[in-house]
Amino acid sequence: MIGSLIPELGKNKNMEEVKEEGQVVEACSCPDCVKRALEHKESETMNFAILLALMPALTITFLSNAGFF
Q: Where are the domains of the chain?
């Protein structure tokens, strides 16, 4: 409620609107936030690669427990 009364409360002057997959997301352009976003993106990529690498083992385990192997 207070945020709607004072729209600029808690906003950083470095914030800018960025469109991401059809959504408008506020992003900060300060060096710390840019570094954090890059680390988050790299972490997401690594986690997806690990998940992709484990899928064959998970599939074989599931199929062997279900009695297909």
A: 2-65
